[in-house]
Design goal:
The complex is a heterodimer of chains A (about 280) and B (about 110). Chain A is of the alpha+beta class. Chain A has 8 helices and 10 strands. The chains are: A alpha+beta (about 280), B mainly beta (about 110). Chains A and B meet through β6 and α7 of A and β1 and β2 of B. Chain A: Pfam families: PhyH.
């Protein structure tokens, strides 16, 4: 990838906290029209596969479409904040859902169950053309990324309260935590729907990689406290507990807490209570 | 005495088909609010699928009963496995309902 993005291009702590709570970031119309127009031909022709773990610079040479996409300042800044400098390409894929295609994907998480407590991959999803509700944009379930489920075992769930059915302008990008539940919806429109996905693996510890100038801002805790409509009352509290533990790992601060959730259940006076 | 030939008429066949409604509720009580749902239609009249709507069909499990759905299964309450007390995984409060519908098909005489 290009040189480390400028600090002002990195995510703020509040946006990073939003990612930890929601499991994704959405960058609306971040890709310019010229690149969107180029994308259709590139995606139709197919982007050559690369071996798992290929550095970005080798997978996507300077001047290639995919490299130009990853080097856009907003995208480069977000990726650098999440997975650091020099991530590797896990894999990439072009998804084209044809008009009246008939079937939606079952709700799923990609790859296999992945419960790393202090590391995560991201998946970039790029939409070079506007996506309407009828065109079967990606369905994503905010806040589902820390659930311990395996691939399409969640296929029984057709709809969850507060789900997001992707409707967007051309050039919009999603950056997802690897665990988020999602689905390519049925395309009931008369036009094909295009999406280009790139999964990136970190190569450095994911600790304070973003712009931490606002780490103490109340907006951070506010983002981390987000509850989603599909959470059960009781399990929603466990989500907060698990987010706190992820935030501790990402900030390197084992004392961080929200409303005493983790501190309370690890308080064992006189005993070794190491628990991050 | 003569017998008049009868006119052959199409036969009507009645069959029962099942519609299934799965509701995920906010807690283990049937009167708690709906947070997720799925539908399946054995009549073939509709084809529900992933992400086909943002509005739940009912606000609570009880509301489904009042509309004629019959509850046939509710998830058990299972304690967490030791050392996995803080894990979040599948939705816990799953209720399966059904409606049985008579469908009539016309069969031509052979």
């Amino acid at each position: 990838m290009a040189a480390r993005p400028a600090r002002e291009q990195l995510l703020t702590s509040a946006r990073m906290a939003r990612f930890v709570a929601h499991g994704y970031l959405r960058l609306n119309s971040v890709v310019p029209d010229a690149l969107n127009d180029q994308a259709l031909g590139v995606l139709a022709a197919g982007v050559p596969a690369v071996p798992y773990g290929t550095p970005v610079a080798e997978a996507f040479p300077e001047g290639s479409f995919a490299r130009s996409l990853l080097d856009l300042p907003a995208i480069a800044g977000a990726l650098s904040s999440l997975v650091g400098p020099d991530p590797t390409i896990d894999h990439h894929a072009v998804h084209i859902r044809q008009p009246q295609e008939g079937q939606a994907q079952p709700l799923h998480g990609d790859a296999i169950i992945d419960v790393r407590p202090d590391a995560f991959d991201v998946q970039l999803m790029y939409y070079p053309r506007a996506v309407t509700l009828e065109a079967g944009g990606t369905l994503i379930v905010p806040g589902s990324h820390l659930r311990r489920t395996n691939e399409s075992d969640t296929g029984r769930y057709q709809n969850l309260l507060g789900q997001q059915r992707m409707v967007c302008e051309a050039g919009t990008v999603l950056i997802l935590h690897h665990g988020i539940w999602h689905s390519g919806r049925r395309n009931d429109s008369g036009v094909p729907r295009y999406m280009f996905k790139i999964r990136l693996n970190p190569t450095v510890p994911q600790v304070r990689l973003w712009n931490t100038d606002d780490l103490g801002d109340p907006a951070v805790a506010e983002e981390l406290r987000t509850r989603f409509p599909w959470y059960e009352q009781a399990t929603g509290r466990l989500e907060l507990h698990n987010r706190i533990r992820l935030w501790r790992a990402l900030t390197g601060d084992p004392s961080f807490d929200l409303d005493h959730w983790v501190t309370r259940v690890t308080n064992r006076p006189g005993r070794n209570t190491a628990h991050t | 005495m003569t017998t008049q030939p009868t006119t052959a008429e199409p036969a009507l066949t009645s069959t029962v088909r099942q519609q299934v409604l799965v509701l995920y509720l906010n807690n283990s009580s049937l009167d708690s609010s709906v947070i997720g749902w799925a539908r399946h239609d054995g009549t073939g009249a509709t084809s529900p699928t992933t992400g086909d709507g943002d509005e739940p069909p009912y606000t609570t499990g009880i509301a489904a009963l009042l509309d004629g759905w019959r509850l046939f299964q509710a998830s058990q309450l299972i304690p967490p496995y030791p050392d996995h007390e803080y894990d979040a995984s599948f939705l816990k409060h799953e209720f399966l309902f059904e409606k049985l519908l008579n469908t009539t098909t016309t069969t031509s005489p052979t």
